Amino acid sequence: xxxxxxxxxxxxxxxxxxxxxxxxxxxxxxxxxxxxxxxxxxxxxxxxxxxxxxxxxxxxxxxxxxxxxxxxxxxxxxxxxxxxxxxxxxxxxxxxxxxxxxxxxxxxxxxxxxxxxxxxxxx
Length: 123
What we know:
The chain has about 120 residues and is α+β, with helices and mostly antiparallel strands. Helix content is about 35%, strand content about 30%.
Protein backbone atom coordinates (compact mmCIF):
# COMPACT_ATOMS: atom_id res chain seq x y z
CA UNK A 1 0.00 0.00 0.00
CA UNK A 2 2.95 2.35 0.67
CA UNK A 3 4.22 1.91 -2.90
CA UNK A 4 0.76 2.78 -4.24
CA UNK A 5 0.76 5.99 -2.16
CA UNK A 6 4.24 6.92 -3.41
CA UNK A 7 3.16 6.25 -7.00
CA UNK A 8 0.05 8.41 -6.55
CA UNK A 9 2.09 11.28 -5.04
CA UNK A 10 4.65 11.05 -7.88
CA UNK A 11 1.89 11.08 -10.49
CA UNK A 12 0.23 14.12 -8.92
CA UNK A 13 3.60 15.87 -8.73
CA UNK A 14 4.17 15.30 -12.48
CA UNK A 15 0.73 16.58 -13.37
CA UNK A 16 1.12 19.71 -11.26
CA UNK A 17 4.61 20.47 -12.60
CA UNK A 18 3.70 19.87 -16.24
CA UNK A 19 0.74 22.29 -16.13
CA UNK A 20 2.80 25.51 -16.46
CA UNK A 21 4.98 23.96 -19.15
CA UNK A 22 1.89 22.94 -21.10
CA UNK A 23 0.41 26.44 -20.73
CA UNK A 24 3.67 28.01 -21.96
CA UNK A 25 3.57 25.80 -25.06
CA UNK A 26 -0.01 26.85 -25.79
CA UNK A 27 0.92 30.54 -25.61
CA UNK A 28 3.75 30.10 -28.09
CA UNK A 29 1.51 28.17 -30.49
CA UNK A 30 -1.18 30.84 -30.25
CA UNK A 31 1.34 33.57 -31.15
CA UNK A 32 2.94 31.63 -34.03
CA UNK A 33 0.13 32.08 -36.58
CA UNK A 34 0.07 35.83 -35.91
CA UNK A 35 3.76 36.07 -36.82
CA UNK A 36 3.19 34.11 -40.03
CA UNK A 37 0.31 36.40 -40.95
CA UNK A 38 2.57 39.44 -40.56
CA UNK A 39 5.22 37.96 -42.85
CA UNK A 40 2.87 36.73 -45.54
CA UNK A 41 0.53 39.67 -45.54
CA UNK A 42 -1.77 39.35 -48.51
CA UNK A 43 -1.92 42.41 -50.72
CA UNK A 44 -4.77 42.51 -53.19
CA UNK A 45 -3.76 43.65 -56.66
CA UNK A 46 -6.35 45.23 -58.92
CA UNK A 47 -6.23 45.89 -62.65
CA UNK A 48 -7.76 48.66 -64.73
CA UNK A 49 -7.62 49.51 -68.43
CA UNK A 50 -8.15 53.10 -69.50
CA UNK A 51 -6.85 56.21 -71.21
CA UNK A 52 -3.81 57.98 -69.79
CA UNK A 53 -4.89 61.59 -69.21
CA UNK A 54 -1.93 63.00 -67.24
CA UNK A 55 1.66 62.11 -66.34
CA UNK A 56 3.56 63.88 -63.55
CA UNK A 57 7.08 62.42 -63.62
CA UNK A 58 8.35 64.74 -60.88
CA UNK A 59 5.72 63.54 -58.38
CA UNK A 60 5.58 60.00 -59.80
CA UNK A 61 1.86 60.10 -60.45
CA UNK A 62 -0.53 59.43 -63.33
CA UNK A 63 -4.22 59.91 -64.04
CA UNK A 64 -6.23 57.35 -65.96
CA UNK A 65 -9.76 57.78 -67.28
CA UNK A 66 -11.80 54.58 -67.07
CA UNK A 67 -15.25 54.95 -68.52
CA UNK A 68 -16.99 57.49 -66.30
CA UNK A 69 -14.34 58.14 -63.66
CA UNK A 70 -10.75 59.33 -63.48
CA UNK A 71 -8.31 57.57 -61.15
CA UNK A 72 -5.07 59.00 -59.78
CA UNK A 73 -2.17 56.65 -59.01
CA UNK A 74 1.14 57.10 -57.25
CA UNK A 75 3.67 55.18 -59.33
CA UNK A 76 5.90 52.73 -57.43
CA UNK A 77 9.64 52.74 -58.11
CA UNK A 78 9.24 49.44 -59.98
CA UNK A 79 6.88 51.02 -62.54
CA UNK A 80 8.67 54.38 -63.02
CA UNK A 81 10.69 53.29 -66.12
CA UNK A 82 7.46 52.67 -68.05
CA UNK A 83 6.43 56.33 -67.64
CA UNK A 84 8.99 57.45 -70.23
CA UNK A 85 7.45 55.20 -72.90
CA UNK A 86 3.90 56.51 -72.46
CA UNK A 87 2.16 59.69 -73.54
CA UNK A 88 -1.23 61.17 -72.76
CA UNK A 89 -4.00 59.63 -74.81
CA UNK A 90 -2.43 56.14 -74.77
CA UNK A 91 -4.64 53.22 -73.80
CA UNK A 92 -2.89 51.56 -70.85
CA UNK A 93 -3.20 48.77 -68.30
CA UNK A 94 -2.48 49.61 -64.66
CA UNK A 95 -2.05 46.99 -61.96
CA UNK A 96 -2.32 48.61 -58.55
CA UNK A 97 -2.72 48.12 -54.83
CA UNK A 98 -4.54 50.20 -52.27
CA UNK A 99 -8.01 51.60 -51.76
CA UNK A 100 -9.81 54.91 -52.39
CA UNK A 101 -7.34 57.85 -52.36
CA UNK A 102 -4.19 55.76 -51.80
CA UNK A 103 -3.72 53.87 -55.08
CA UNK A 104 -0.19 52.71 -55.95
CA UNK A 105 0.57 51.55 -59.49
CA UNK A 106 2.87 48.52 -59.47
CA UNK A 107 2.70 47.90 -63.25
CA UNK A 108 1.96 50.19 -66.18
CA UNK A 109 1.90 49.06 -69.78
CA UNK A 110 -0.02 48.92 -73.02
CA UNK A 111 -2.70 46.24 -73.31
CA UNK A 112 -1.87 43.18 -75.35
CA UNK A 113 -3.64 43.09 -78.69
CA UNK A 114 -6.52 40.65 -78.71
CA UNK A 115 -6.48 37.84 -81.24
CA UNK A 116 -8.89 38.50 -84.08
CA UNK A 117 -11.32 35.70 -84.91
CA UNK A 118 -10.74 33.80 -88.12
CA UNK A 119 -12.88 35.51 -90.78
CA UNK A 120 -12.45 33.01 -93.62
CA UNK A 121 -15.73 31.95 -95.21
CA UNK A 122 -16.82 28.40 -94.55
CA UNK A 123 -16.42 26.09 -97.49
